Amino acid sequence: MMCGAPSPAQPATAETQDIADQVKAQLEEKENCKFDVFKAMSFKSQVVAGTNYFIKVHVGDDRFVHLRVFRSLPHENKPLSLAAYQANKAEHDELTYF
């Protein structure tokens, strides 16, 4: 893996789902809607001054969103933040840096 580059995509884990769940309310506020389905499907991570997580989330029917979640360094003691997201994604859309 290249230093600073995102990891290859891998299947979501329980930790990935927990990260997605922690920023779900932030996304719902930005999108002005509630998601009944919110299942993390795959993710990439990138070590920066903290960690960026790129997570593909199934939000019902054939709809997906891509999240970029930032986890600060432990000593900063900050909550996870939804740094960016891409709506209107499909299952086959590649999870890329954004």
Q: What's a concise summary of this model?
A:
This protein has 98 residues and is α+β, with helices and mostly antiparallel strands.
Question: Would you give an account of this structure?
Answer:
The structure is a single chain. The chain is an alpha+beta fold and 98 residues long. The protein has 1 helix and 5 strands. It has one helix at residues 14-31, and strands at 10-11, 39-48, 50-60, 63-71, 81-89. Strands 1-2-3-4-5 form a 5-stranded antiparallel beta sheet, covered by helices on one side. The mean pLDDT is 92.
Strand fraction equals 35-45%
What radius of gyration results from the CA coordinates? Answer: 13 Å
- The oligomeric state of the chains shown is single chain
Element-by-element helix/strand order = EHEEEE
Biggest β-sheet strands, sense, barrel: 5 strands, antiparallel
